[in-house]
UniProtKB/TrEMBL annotation:
Protein name: TetR/AcrR family transcriptional regulator
Keyword vocabulary terms for this entry: DNA-binding, Transcription, Transcription regulation
DNA-binding region: 28-47
The species this protein was found in: Actinacidiphila epipremni
Gene3D superfamilies according to UniProt: Homeodomain-like, Tetracycline Repressor, domain 2
Domain HTH tetR-type residues, every copy: 5-65
Family annotation (InterPro entries): Homeodomain-like_sf, HTH_TetR, MT1864/Rv1816-like_C, Tet_transcr_reg_TetR-rel_C_sf
Pfam family, any one: TetR_N
UniProt keyword annotation of Transferase present: no
Length: 197
């Protein structure tokens, strides 16, 4: 029997909140059930298993992060768009560390569920749209997206792990890194002959 008031959205949100508090790897069906005050078995009326729940958390987080980036970058171009995009990415990682980890963790997700979620698709559109402002086209667009994702994720992951022990504030380094990325994007090297798109 389905417990009154329990929905797939409530179960997913409870899992996302637990991920932020304890870490994404600590999300279990038992812990989510305890958080909701129900028996473990009650969750299976809403999610198939732990993998399904974690996939739903990842999609929820992708939607949230993408919305934050979209709001930050609307009406901006060039360096202003790059900085707004990057700052929104970092802000989400700081505010929701467990959910952020879910967005960076390879998880098998039901194709129908993934297709219905706007976040991942919109994230690609936002990334490519922002980079087209620098005059990039394929295959350079894909290379630039990979560079930005690697830089942003690497920075926030190291920051979260407490790896920046130097006296210089991470905020200063972040700002300079964005300056450097802007210069690089403005002077992107020409694709070599034979590069595939």
């Amino acid at each position: 029997m389905v417990r009154a008031g329990l929905t797939v959205e409530r179960v997913t949100l409870a899992g996302a909140e637990l991920a932020d508090e304890a870490g994404f790897a600590q999300v279990t069906m038992a812990q989510v059930a305890r958080r909701l005050g129900v028996r473990d078995a009650s969750l299976y009326a809403h999610v198939r298993n732990l993998e399904d729940l974690r996939g739903r958390i990842a999609l929820l987080a992708a939607d949230e992060k993408t919305l934050l980036i979209a709001e930050a970058t609307t009406g901006r171009a060039g360096k202003d768009a790059l900085v707004a995009y990057a700052n929104a990415w970092r802000a989400y990682a700081h505010a929701h560390p467990g959910r952020y980890t879910a967005t960076q963790t390879p998880i098998p997700i039901d194709p129908a569920l993934a297709a219905a979620a706007p976040g991942p698709r919109r994230a690609v559109e936002l990334s490519y749209g922002m980079l087209r402002g620098y005059g990039l086209a394929e295959p350079d667009l894909t290379d630039a997206v990979r560079l930005l994702r690697s830089t942003f994720h690497g920075f926030v992951a190291l920051e979260a792990a407490g790896s920046f022990a130097h006296a210089r504030p991470p905020e200063d380094t972040w700002s300079r890194a964005l300056d450097a990325l802007h210069v690089l994007l403005e002077h992107w090297p020409t694709s070599r002959a034979g590069d595939s798109s």
